[in-house]
Amino acid sequence: MTIVVGHLATPEGQEALRTAVTEAREREVPLVVVTNSKRPADECKAETDELVSRLAGEVEVRVELGTGDLAEDLIRTATSTAADLIVIGLRKRSPVGKLILGAGAQRILVEAPCPVLAVKV
């Protein structure tokens, strides 16, 4: 059992990561962080190494390189790890934007093999 979260440098991505760490610590399960592979490999490796060292004392963490399609990567990783939970971040939207959740978030909510915790910024 694990908790899966995507690693994004956005405010909602950072809030999702903070929440996922808290959930993993409280549930005493490993955390799987999915990173974006569309960036240069050395940049991803440096960021991943920093992330793992920062979280090492808090939770057991494993990083997986994504394909660039975050929704697909989170669903695939949650399925392959028999995840307890996927954590995603959402930003506040206008009244019209609230009617349209966003294709990635909607896909995760509909296709996830486990519960999804959405945290808003």
UniProtKB/TrEMBL annotation:
- SUPFAM superfamilies in the cross-refs: Adenine nucleotide alpha hydrolases-like
> What is the protein's given name?
Universal stress protein
Q: Which residues form the UspA domain?
A: 51-120
Q: Which InterPro entries match?
A: Rossmann-like_a/b/a_fold (IPR014729), Universal_stress_UspA (IPR006015), UspA (IPR006016)
Tell me the leader sequence span: none
User: Which family is this sequence assigned to?
Assistant: Belongs to the universal stress protein A family.
